[in-house]
Amino acid sequence: MKTVRLLTLVCLLLTSLGIQAQTARKFTINLTDDAKAQMVCFLPESSSGKAVVGIPGGGYSMLSNTHEGTLASGWMNSQGIAYFVVNYRLPEGDRTKPISDVEKAFRIVRDSAAVWGINPRDVGIMGFSAGGHLASVISTHSPYELRPDFTILFYPVISMDEKVSHVWSCRNFLGEDQKNPALVRDFSTQNAVKRHLTPPAVIIMANDDRLVPPVTNGIAYYSAMRNAGNECSMFIYPSGDHGFGFGPWFKYHDQMLNELGAWLKARQTPKPDAIRVACIGNSITDGHGIDMAPQHGYPALLQKKLGDGYWVKNFGVSARTMLQKGDFPYMNETAWKDALAFQPDIVIIKLGTNDSKPHNWQHGGEFKQDLEQMIKSLAPQLAAQGKKKGKKSKTPAVTKPRIFLCTPIPAFKSTWDISDSVIVNNIIPIQQEVARQYGLKVIDLHTLFADGADLVQPDGIHPNEKGVQRMAEIIAQELSK
Q1: What is the DSSP letter of 318?
Q2: pTM (predicted TM-score)
């Protein structure tokens, strides 16, 4: 036993020496006025621009902030990664305390990015066990500006159902709300994963974990991510039980670091000065019927065509309408809030197909005002332009963002009661009128797809793989003009 303890102390000493060699600066920031929550900061000698915010575990009853916290700093800094360990407040019946502490840490890191040599859009989160649950909550529940760009989860608690998870993590996080089925479901974060919006993740576990069941926790999160088409990887090691963290005693420690390092390096990171392109739309933008649409839908293909000088994000949500009185209004969605928070330089709006359904188009008299509301929300400076009712703008509006209105592609079949007649005779004329009024550009996909029955899926509505390729080509050409 004495030999094991001696070896552990030697490992920790060597790790400490490694930290000194790779870390240029270490300091602590209070996250609360009473200093009950703090962030320990480790800045590397040579920065890659990447940052990771670490969230220790401890069942929401304590913080295991050495092997699941500061012990990772040496390796992180050696990779050029700025590393921040959040010693958050325990819930003690109030889950908002740890959530707000981590969100404040993210705000500080992003606000200080220029000073600390960090790309503000390359800030990830890394959580262990209950800290993995907290990391997944931030990844799925926090607003866009406080959400991480990638997520690393070590043997995470995911479910808040104590029958299939770690009992005390569930009880300590939810408190009396453990009796509320809706909150149990909501904070079981596999249920909160959103297509396109939940950041890429890697999950690291041991097969013989006896404390947090992998199948109903880490694997459940992976399944939700994969089913959504989001980027996600998972490494499950034969043994290691629970709580190995960054401890050098973990049998697969070196292998794990190599695989985590390769995953981090493989991530495509947008340049800080990249032109931001927001793709807003319904299922055609979302990528209905395209497997792994976040990587193979038209916005992803548009990114490839435009190159790394652009940053294209997909904010499409299936079945959504422009009409606020439609069955599923787009502007009620988290995706809409995220699109605004993204602060895009260019916006591609492709809505209208679902608005043509009879039960939606009964409110068609409000389509124009709802489209105008979206435009003014994106570019408030266009409000004055909109007062010139019916007058064509002498020159295209010079705005940020530049807004492009895409006409719906033809409805080759009336699947789901979608009406091509309403699209042609009502929706497209309104789009053209609004474009003239505000000096915007219309991308006429309806005309360009008119002979493209081979570009759509059997439903006659959604583009197939050739169709999304064609959409990306058309939109890329328009953006380059």
Answers
A1: T
A2: 0.91
Q: How far is CA 239 from CA 117, 210, 224, 243, 296, in A?
A: 38, 11, 24, 12, 36
CA dist., res. 271 & res. 121, Å (int): 8
**pLDDT, tens digit, 9 for 90 and up, residues 382-433:** 876 655 554 555 555 556 899 999 999 999 999 999 999 999 999 999 999 9
Nearest to 171 by CA among 60, 57, 56, 58: 60
Residue whose pair of structure tokens reads 């002979």 in the numeric block: 451
86 token code pair: 């959040």
Residue ranges of E strands in 210-360: 232-237, 275-281, 310-316, 346-350
Q: Which of 433, 407, 441, 437 is nearest to 422 (CA)?
A: 407
Compute the distance between CA of residue 212 and CA of residue 205 in angstroms, rounded to an integer: 10
Give the C-alpha separation, 333 to 321, whole Å.
11
DSSP state of 366: G
| Helix ranges (DSSP H) in 199-333 | 218-228, 253-266, 283-286, 293-296, 298-306
The CA distance from 308 to 439, in Å, is 28
CA count, 13 A, side-chain hemisphere, 192: 23
CA distance readout (Å), 120 to 269, 391, 462: 10, 42, 35
